[in-house]
Amino acid sequence: MDKASLRKEYLYIRSHIKNRDIKDEEIYNKLISNHHFKKAKTILTYVSYRDEVDTYKIIKYALENGKRVATPKVQNSELVFYYIHSFDDLKKGTYGIMEPIGNEIASDMDAISLTPALCYTKDGYRLGYGGGYYDRYYHNHHPYKIGLCYEDCLVDKIPVEIGDEKVDMIITSRKDDENAIISR
After folding, report:
1. Nearest to residue 150, comparing CAs of 16, 12, 24, 7?
2. Which residues of 71-101 are buried (b: 16+ CB within 10 A; e: fewer)?
């Protein structure tokens, strides 16, 4: 199946996730107890939009626990992360997605990056929205990359192209510990 068809299918699947609040809580708990999250000084994270795995609680937790938090904005077709200090540092931007209003560019040193996707493969490839922003960012920056994924959106295979970047770890909403965190 081609990427465009998969995007349509997983937008539909993700919009019909049952018990979303419970699954978001499971992912949140696994993430904040993960050693990569604990040791990271900076959290580069998307601000969840529509049916994405919720990041608002993660952002709040990180800010309250002394981590630097940065969120992305697209500038000149490139993804740039800017530090925020509270949710007041965000405003609606393109497509209604919350973006940072500050101008302090974040470092990827000692950072993890929470990466959005429509679906992930177990070996770390992701199907994004088609802009390639995260792939280009990861080609030039090297934070530890964590994908947040509902179990329903974990797939066996997606078409992979040159320039597609893998994440280092996927945290899912699965309850069993063996398959809830997938590292490569």
Report:
1. 24
2. bbbeeeeebbbbbbeeeebbeeeeeebbbbe
Overall CATH class of domain 3-183 = alpha beta
Placement of tokens 């990271």 in the chain: 40
Q: What is the 3-state secondary structure (H, E, C) of 71-130?
A: EEEEECCEEEEEEECCHHHEEECHHHCEEECCCCECCCCCEEEEECCCEEECCCCEECCC
Three-state DSSP class for 66? coil
Domains of the chain by residue range: 3-183
pLDDT in tens, 120-164: 998 999 998 888 899 999 999 999 999 999 999 999 999 898 988
The whole-number average pLDDT for the span 5-12 is 92
Say whether pLDDT at 106 is over 70.
yes
User: Which amino acid is present at 106?
Assistant: A
Q: In the structure encoding, which two tokens stand for residue 164, read together?
A: 């597609």
SS3 157: coil
Which pTM does this prediction carry? 0.92
